């Protein structure tokens, strides 16, 4: 699962500046630009997302069928068949750039927060869709079974798309098994306070 992630501030040297510059230019006259978040990102926040054409602003979460809350993740293994995600899986794939994502390990009633990533930005696989009553597109993060080195924290993790197949993920039909086999699993973790 992925319930939160982190976007570095624009003065960070991590490569996010180019994405933020593009979004700032694109939305310069829009009041929605002031709603864009950085730092720790929560469901329903508005953030820059990479599509096959350019970085754009999107809101995190698809509305639940019952209208109560948001669906923020989709399982890679079933997204192509589930009615909520099927169309987006075929037509609207995206990448969610982040410095790292957060996950919690439960030990009885105690919860321990970890920051998980690489020594460079990560790009999580995502799906997006348009809703008539929403000003911006909505996105979800695709998840997969956790890598063995991370399974003690949680049994799921985001699908981290390596550089060599990012463009392909955005522009072609890529089988879920290929993405699963090629996704990054050698991630590092540290305590997050």
> What's the total count of β strands?
12
How does the helix and strand content classify structurally? Answer: alpha+beta
Biggest sheet character: 10 strands, mixed
**How much is the radius of gyration in Å?**
16 Å
Poorly predicted sequence stretches spanning 5 or more consecutive residues: none
| Fraction of residues in H or I helices | 10-25%
| Order of H and E elements | EHEEEEEEHEEEEHHE
Strand content: 35-45%
What general outline do the C-alpha atoms trace? globular
Distance between the termini: 19 Å
Mean pLDDT: 92
How many alpha or pi helices? 4
Report on the structure:
With 193 residues, the protein is an alpha+beta fold. Helix content is 17%, strand content 39%. The strands form two sheets. Strands 1, 2, 3, 4, 7, 8, 9, 10, 11 and 12 form a ten-stranded mixed sheet that branches. Strand 9 and strand 10 (138-145) form a beta hairpin. It is globular, with a radius of gyration of 16 Å. The model has no long low-confidence stretch (mean pLDDT 92).
């Amino acid at each position: 699962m992925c319930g939160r992630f982190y976007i570095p501030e624009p003065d960070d040297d991590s490569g996010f500046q180019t994405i933020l510059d593009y979004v700032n230019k694109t939305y310069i006259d829009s009041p929605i630009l002031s709603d864009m978040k950085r730092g720790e990102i929560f469901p329903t926040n508005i953030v820059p997302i990479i599509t096959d054409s350019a970085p754009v602003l999107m809101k995190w979460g698809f509305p639940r069928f019952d209208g109560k809350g948001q669906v923020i993740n989709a399982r890679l293994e079933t997204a192509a068949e589930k009615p909520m995600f099927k169309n987006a899986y075929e037509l609207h794939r995206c990448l969610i750039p982040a410095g790292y994502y957060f996950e919690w390990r439960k030990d009885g009633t105690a919860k321990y927060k970890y920051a998980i990533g690489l020594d460079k930005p990560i790009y999580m696989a995502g799906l997006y869709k348009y809703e008539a009553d929403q000003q911006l597109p909505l996105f979800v993060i695709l998840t997969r079974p956790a890598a063995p080195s991370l399974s003690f924290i949680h049994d799921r993790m985001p699908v981290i798309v390596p550089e060599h197949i990012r463009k392909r993920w955005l522009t072609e039909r890529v089988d879920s098994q290929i993405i699963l086999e090629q996704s990054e699993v050698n991630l590092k973790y540290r305590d997050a306070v």
